[in-house]
Amino acid sequence: MSEYRVKLLPSDETIGVRPNELILEAALRQGTDVVYSCRNGTCRSCIHQVVEGTVVQEDAEYCMISPQELADNRRLICLATVRSDAVLEKVKPGKRLNA
Ligand code: FES
Q1: Separation of CA 51 and ligand 1 centre (Å)
Q2: Is the CB of 82 under 6 A from ligand 1?
Q3: Which atom of ligand 1 is nearest to the CA of 36?
C-alpha cells in the first residue's frame, strides 16, 4: 500500500500515512512521540500548522477548531488525513480562534 510522507516539526521525524488514515493513528502506529489526549477533536492538544501539503480536517463541524483556524491551515491531527506529502509543525493549543 502506498503511503504519503509526512514530516513532523519540530522533531523532524517523517512518518508514512496511508490514504484515509488519520495522521495521529499513523504516528502512533510507527511509535512516533506526538502530543495528544482525547483523540476525538475536542482537547486541541494535537493541533498543528500545515506548512506544506494538502491536509483534510475530517468531521470539522464536530471538532474544536474554528473556521478561521481552518482557513489559516491549522488542523487537529487526531481527525485529519492527507492527500499529498506534507509538512506539519506543532503549535501550542491556545484558545480556539473565533471566525
Ligand atoms: S487529541 Fe484531542 S483534539 Fe486531537
Answers
A1: 19
A2: no
A3: 1
Query: Which CATH number is 38's domain given?
Result: 3.10.20.30
Ligand 1 atom nearest to 78, measured from its CA: 4
Q: 49 C-alpha vs ligand 1 centroid, how far in Å?
A: 14
- What's the confidence (pLDDT) of residue 93? 82
Look-up: residue for cell 484558545? 95
pLDDT score recorded for residue 92: 86
Q: Choose between 11 and 93: higher pLDDT.
A: 11
State the residue for C-alpha cell 488525513: 81
pLDDT tens column, 54-98: 999 999 899 999 999 999 999 999 999 999 999 999 998 877 766
Q: Is 65 in the pocket of ligand 1 (CB under 6 A)?
A: no
Q: How many domains are there within the chain?
A: 1
